[in-house]
Design brief:
With 655 residues, the chain is of the alpha/beta class. Among the domains are: 7-168 and 220-282, TIM Barrel (Alpha-Beta Barrel); 311-398, Elongation Factor Tu (Ef-tu), domain 3, CATH 2.40.30.10; 413-511, no CATH class. Helix content is 22%, strand content 29%. The protein has 13 helices and 32 strands. An eight-stranded parallel barrel has the order 1-2-3-4-5-6-7-11, surrounded by six helices. The chain has a six-stranded antiparallel sheet with strand order 9-8-30-31-32-29, with no helix packed on it. Strands 15-16-19-18-17-20 form a six-stranded antiparallel β-barrel. The two termini are 31 Å apart. Keywords: Hydrolase, Protease. GO terms for molecular function: peptidase activity. This is Protease. It comes from Undibacterium macrobrachii.
Length: 655
Amino acid sequence: MTLRINEIELLSPAKTVEIGREAILHGADAVYIGGPSFGARHNASNEISDIAKLVEFAHRYHARIFVTLNTILHDSELEPAQKLIGQFYDAGVDALIVQDMGVMELDIPPIQIHASTQCDIRTPAKAHFLGASGFSQLVLARELTIAQIKAIKAQTNTPLEYFVHGALCVAYSGQCYISHAKDGRSANRGDCSQACRLPYTLTDSEGRVVAYDKHLLSMKDNDQSANLEALLDAGIQSLKIEGRYKDMGYVKNITAHYRLLLDEILERRPEFYRASSGRTQIAFTPNVDKTFHRGHTDYFANGRLDNIGAFDSPKFVGLHIGYVTRLGPDWFELETNEDLANGDGLNYMHKREVVGVHANTVEKKQTNENGTIWRVYPNEKMAEFASLKVGMSVQRNRDQQWEMALTKKSSDRKVGLWMTLSDNEHGLVLSLSDADGVTSSASVAIKLEAAQQAEKVDASLRENLAKLGASMFYLEQLNVHLSQPWFVPTSVINALRRDAVSAHEQMRVHAWQRPLRAEAEEPPVAYPETTLTYLANVYNQKASQFYKKHGVQLIAAAYEAHQEAGEVPVMITKHCLRFSFNLCPKQAKGVTGVQGQVKAEPMTLINGDEKITLRFDCKPCEMHVMGTMKPHILKSPPPSTVLSPVVFHKSRPTK
């Protein structure tokens, strides 16, 4: 089934099947993972046979598995994609996350289709259209405010999904072509070169330096911890964690963090309920600062802020732990209130660069009223840290003890079970049921004999039946309904329990009803606009066919399909550097002097020999990074048929 009203889903990423299993055990109601191809993450692919195993594991908890198929497709790739979708369906996958509208025109099984964040869903009209066109879940743009989400929800009954944690693309997702413009590596094809994480110098129209050698397009990481309840009230049902490249520790930690926050809300707000089964028991205290992040921001959820950028470094700097007090020939000492461990990752800032120090060994030297002095022996020679000075601040971005703890069993998830033991003329029957209404039974043929110590029978049977151990169940209630106290060997009752539990696990898998794809309305609903530019990412004839069916009259080919064209926005972003440096005309309204004379004029980003023009569209409050469409040698052949001519507008490009 699809998400029902007020059913809340925590959706976690998985680079591998093993990470996916741990995400479920740490509280995920659903997991998204890449398949063998077309998954927009080249180094996060998985074989279908492995995904099938994850599906079976997830369905034991009535959790869902989504597979990403969110690249735009060449015409030559449509047939392989169609075949792959059939294989996903046969593997039991619950839904596909899709960007390319051509998928909607393929002959595929009735698997759910979710609209990827790359579909750039920012308006009620777009959300309504996609829901009415057969999409079963919509991943909204990260840039939306809570008020805008509420407005979208008012116009659609389709479940809404929203990123609550992880790395942020500076551009509207699906609206960034800077990587392809630079070197032919398309983000929409899963091969982004992350030009947004490079250092740039920002100059104004007269060449004056506004910011020097900063990572001006690099955002802090998304963290909506404080906004979860407001997001639920606005209509978000699926809370998504970013991170299909992230390691096991990150997924365990962040999934557990949001599971605990959500459980607290669900406990207070009974109108909301969990989308999957079981009770999650976390064996550690989650801490979002302990795993990779570039700082925290809730981005635009509560309106525009001036501190959303990670301008100093795109790396994980970690937490400040102390200051350098002494330097030695092969060591340095620092004063801290934290415990250090061999293998810790430390760092400090030198000018604009993060200098990493891997602590080979550490020694606790002495404690005073300000903290403890630790001597650190780096893996590298101290000569490599000539820039390290007494008094410098030191951060830790790898807590060895923390990370080692997460390599061990750190969570468990169990489903409540009601058990009833009864007898009949053939022997014993153990009947099981759970909170999802799944029932099963197992029996053993045995000649029943009256017990000599009748008073001990009940207690002995209960003790052995309650030993659920490493199974996925915990005991809610046990009833023993026997016609009289029977002697039952311990080995027999234990075997009956094991058989019954194993059978019930399989019954839960078989009882899972895979959600059906939403039905598209007939006749087809009209797309909100009749003209599409390259920003619609139409890269094959099936996608063109989809839009024409919905009333679009003029369709431009995707950016990646062009061999050469004029200057166009290669990145469209809500992040505005004029605003970040207090040069926004809206900020300067009513201000006298130079700032009060600010106009929306071009600025320039400089990285080495490359100069990038910035233009500002103040009405929608957007920054456009300009570039030229130029020829590249594509890694795959271009579309085999010609689409409509590319259309460029002097006004704001059509979304």
